Amino acid sequence: MTFSKNSLFTRQELIGFIVLAAIIFLLLPAVLDNFRLNLFGKYLTYAFVAVGLALCWGAGGILSLGQGVFFGLGGYCMAMFLKLEASTPENTSIQSTPGIPDFMDWNQLTELPFWWVPFHSLTIALIAVVIVPVTFALIIGVAMFRRRVGGVYFAIITQAFAAILTILIIGQQGFTGGVNGITDLRTLKGWDIRTDEAKEVLYFVNAFLLFGVLLIAQFVRKSKLGRILIAMRDQEDRVRFSGYDVASFKIFIFCLGAAFAGIGGAMFTLQVGFMSPTLVGIVPSIEMVIFCAVGGRLSILGAVYGALLVNWAKTSFSESFPELWLFGLGGLFIAVVMLFPNGLAGIWTEQIMPRITKLWAARAGAVAPIPATSTEEEGAI
What we know:
It contains 16 helices and two strands. It is an all-alpha fold.
């Protein structure tokens, strides 16, 4: 296989994709029990957000501290469909108003709100998983980027949106489930998603969708758009003076990251079985940035590894050191950022890969045949 300058993958990138696929599709299912595999399925849903951040922050220089908003919106769209499927008149016959979600009945609602009605359809719910986060991102992007708001100011504003949405979800308890969120999700078109077999299937669905997202991200990185994004990150004014509409490029990549996050949120709802405002606010949004930073914000594969590693460390620390796990997680983040600013991907490209390349070159030189002299060549002929 030849790798030209315009190829979708370099040799090293293709090897990286194959190694990641082997870990996710072969190694983890082979060595983990159902409970742990379900945990890693949950971790994979965060990887969607991390990949989007690698494009927005790593390639475009747009640091968003509100990706939890888009993750939560996608998750709530899926949760609404699942909740309506679980709230049939037969299942809710003990309620004052059968046929509506239980939290609505507890809050004295007597009919389903009009904006819940379309979510009886799975098709509409799947479309909303992408469209709703992208619409919110479009509104934020147009309002901010058209006014050239960026850098720290944009990061703070996105953080404020995360806080606002959390307060709104909690305050509208009768429509959203409040602080508890939308729970008791049972089936997807009659298929019980609570069984071990279903969790395993959803893990592989997660993995296939994640690699689809990775391919889209790789295509963007290798395209002219990707080169413009990097130029914007490094010299935004020069790109603007060259005649490019910088705001439009920023809006597009921000919306693409929101779409990735929305898909991750929907898969989280299916994998875990609930969605709550605790996954929408400031803290989870900052954690999502940590996933990307630890893995390496300049690498989409590094972002996936970062999401898996940080969440695995979070689970391990909380199980072994319940009172100290936050300090351990914070120490991991600080150590990686201070010692390896480009994250795990930087360790690979800057430390490990050069050594491997030198070793291969030395070994190839040691076994290479000795060039024949002119006399030897004549004798051979």
